[in-house]
Amino acid sequence: MRTLIVDDSKPDRAALRGLLERVSAVDSILEAECLGSAREILANPDIDLVFLDIEVGRENGFSLLDSVGRDRRVIFTTVHTGYGGQAFDADAVDYIVKPVTEDRMLRALSRAASSFGRSTAPLARVPVHRSGSTRIFLALENLSAVTAEGNYSRVICGSKEYPDHRRLREWEKLLADFPFQRLDRSTLLRLDHIQAIEPQGVGARVILSHNAVLELGRTANERLREVLSDPPPLRA
């Protein structure tokens, strides 16, 4: 999809561009800081999808819809919560209240793609970090497991573990396109990354790709046994 971001806030445009640049289904990204520039860009038929703020300078984003036309899709991105009904009456694909998060943007893109009869690939990479720490970008396809750690989470990727600010339910949405299984309230495990399972009391030690280890309690272990149609060999 060829996209246009219409927003008078440079930081907000940059943040949304950063998310979109990691989605393989997005072919190009253009920006407009005012409706005049947006209209000039929309004169080119190559734009498929418009991310549109409601307050753009002193103008109202809804006034751009005539230039958008019926063959394009619109996703509103705004700090305002009261225009959702008006947006959907105007056949908007989605209405996102800022700040735009990875999972929320993905869902909106999926709806836009579906309206075109297409499918979207997931984010190629996501930033993983705890508050105030360095952001490490990890490829979603390389993640092996995510476990809840209070209000945060622990991500296993390759042979290393990373703390992250997201709750487990947010990771579940981000990883929906990969073969992850929710084993209990605190464990997401990618089944095709399992190398072996070692019994450990009522639980188990799961050996993952790159020899990473995930310890499971009784509930998670029992659930894993249920969902594995062809379980890896047990180690003595």
At a glance:
The protein has 236 residues and is α/β, with parallel strands linked by helices. It folds into 2 domains: 2-115, Rossmann fold (3-Layer(aba) Sandwich), CATH 3.40.50; 125-227, OB fold (Dihydrolipoamide Acetyltransferase, E2P). The chain has helices at residues 10-20, 35-42, 65-68, 84-89, 102-115, 168-174, 218-227, and strands at residues 2-6, 28-32, 49-52, 55-56, 59-60, 73-78, 94-97, 125-128, 136-139, 143-149, 152-157, 160-164, 180-184, 187-190, 194-200, 203-208, 213-216.
Label this structure with key terms.
34% strand; 236 residues; Rossmann fold; 25% helix; OB fold (Dihydrolipoamide Acetyltransferase, E2P); alpha/beta; single chain; five-stranded parallel beta sheet
- The portion of residues assigned to helices is 25-40%
Distance between the termini: 51 Å
- The helix count comes to 7
Please state the CA-atom Rg, rounded to the nearest Å: 21 Å
Largest sheet: 5 strands, parallel
CATH topology of the largest domain: Rossmann fold
| Helix and strand sequence | EHEHEEEHEHEHEEEEEHEEEEEH
- Calculate the mean pLDDT score and round it: 91
Number of strands: 17
Categorize the overall geometry: elongated
Q: Tell me the name of the CATH class of the largest domain.
A: Alpha Beta
Question: How many separate domains?
Answer: 2
Oligomer: single chain
What fraction strand? Answer: 25-35%
Strand order of the largest sheet: 2-1-3-6-7
Uncertain spans: none
Q: At CATH's second level, what is the architecture of the largest domain?
A: 3-Layer(aba) Sandwich
